[in-house]
Amino acid sequence: MMRLRVIFPSARKVYPDKEVELRTATLRNFCGPNTQLEFSYPDEGETFKQNLTWDDFIKAIPHFVLAAKQAEAEGVDAIMIHCVYDPGYEEIRRAVKIPVVGFGQAVFNAALQIAPRFGIIAPNDSLLKEANDVMDQYRVRDRLAHMEPLNVQLPEAHLRGEELRRRSVDIARRCREKGAGVVIPFGMALIPTHLRTEDIRESAGIPVLNPAQIGIREAEIIMEAVA
Amino acid sequence: MMRLRVIFPSARKVYPDKEVELRTATLRNFCGPNTQLEFSYPDEGETFKQNLTWDDFIKAIPHFVLAAKQAEAEGVDAIMIHCVYDPGYEEIRRAVKIPVVGFGQAVFNAALQIAPRFGIIAPNDSLLKEANDVMDQYRVRDRLAHMEPLNVQLPEAHLRGEELRRRSVDIARRCREKGAGVVIPFGMALIPTHLRTEDIRESAGIPVLNPAQIGIREAEIIMEAVA
Q: What are the structural domains, with CATH classification, of chain B?
């Protein structure tokens, strides 16, 4: 049995119970029979909020590192942060010896093997610069065909399902028109937590990657490789 | 059921039956229950030989492309070339619409999620420059801690098992001493076909990735993502 611990980006008290249920169920869906999926939270950090900016992540990163160290001390086999932006990825990796698997890194790697150019459904205008930073970090920015933000606020996602679906499909279609062969939904909190990637794909006619599915499967490969 | 076709880098007549049996068994080992693993060969191409150089691959690449087109026409879901150098990867991808998964790309991606720097057990002096080219292609050369060639000729591998094992362990140890956190064996034909990565790891004390295992699992993620 391999222990994979996913660290949420906000403190536990920030999330409504329903949001936690949805996120954990979404990830459990993709675990193989040998994976024990665990969850933990930083002591501080608020990224599930209106008008989220990267400053909110910066404040939380030291607490992600502490949560990662605790996971290592407790004997888990690999760590992930529940966010496609892979916040704190480098800082956490310097702090622990066990593998740190990025949902973002995993999904970019998959995208590049599916098509030469990808599109991105971004969460918000306020995080567009950082979406470019993540592409730079993984050296894939030149493969971007089109990117556009949803601008549906995280805490309102459960109230705005139809708008979320419609905007996602519109953006995915434009990605296809602009030469993308595959679409990456960025964030994890909106897609695939509140909207299934299959629903976007069916209407938009282009493969839409599921970062939860790909990240969990990639973590399983990694854990198996170093077991 | 998903159909994954692995194209060997040489024409069928070039390989002894025993070599084909070993290679296909090594890959089948790592397939999940929903993968139908198929093999094919280019009409021309000789890379299983003494003093292999990149020129041998260059001559074969047009035939890899033809074999890939045929695979697509026959309805397979994804294609791989049986070589960690991913020969012809870009050319094949331009020629077909289905995913082309690289053993090399997959194993580099895994290595980067395991440790900040990797070491490489290279096959031959004659392919060292091209090992650097592949790292450039995937933009990971700055993560290399140490690389050293085995210099055990491919067609002699079955006769020189103990030397292959000893040299692999020595190189993996030096990778560890020079700061690598994980070792990538390059080639596929020598390792893992003729030497198990577990045998190197146990003696060298550093994780040694299995490109066959990681590549097949990665291809399964990709096929599932676009299914």
A: 2-102+213-226 (3.40.50.1860), 104-210 (3.40.50.12500)
Alpha-carbon distance of A182 to A185, in angstroms, equals 10
Task: Return the residue matching tokens 């994980």.
Answer: B182
Q: How far is B15 from chain A (nearest CA, A)?
A: 28
Please identify which residue in the block is written with the tokens 């939270």: A41
B13 touches chain A (CB under 8 A): no
**pLDDT at B155 exceeding the cut of 90:** no
Q: So what's the ipTM on this one?
A: 0.83
| Residue of chain B with shortest Cα separation from A78 | B114
- The low-confidence residues of chain A, meaning pLDDT below 70, are none
Locate the DSSP E strands across chain B. Answer: 2-7, 35-40, 78-81, 118-122, 144-149, 182-185
Helix or strand run (H / E) with residue A128: helix A128-137
Average pLDDT for residues B196-214, to the nearest whole number? Answer: 95
Helices vs. strands in chain A: H and E counts, helices first:
8, 6
Q: Could you give the C-alpha distances from B52 to B128, B131, B193, in angstroms and in order?
A: 11, 13, 17
Contacts of A93 in chain B (CB under 8 A): 116
Q: Which chain A residues touch B204 with a CB distance below 8 Å?
A: none
**B184 in contact with A at a CB cutoff of 8 Å?**
no
Q: Which residues of B137-162 are buried (b: 16+ CB within 10 A; e: fewer)?
A: bbebeebbbbbbbbebbbeebeebee
- Distance, in Å, from the CA atom of B23 to the CA atom of B81, rounded to the nearest integer, reads 12
Nearest to A114 among B113, B182, B225 (CB): B225
pLDDT at B188: 87
- For residue B214, give the amino acid letter: I
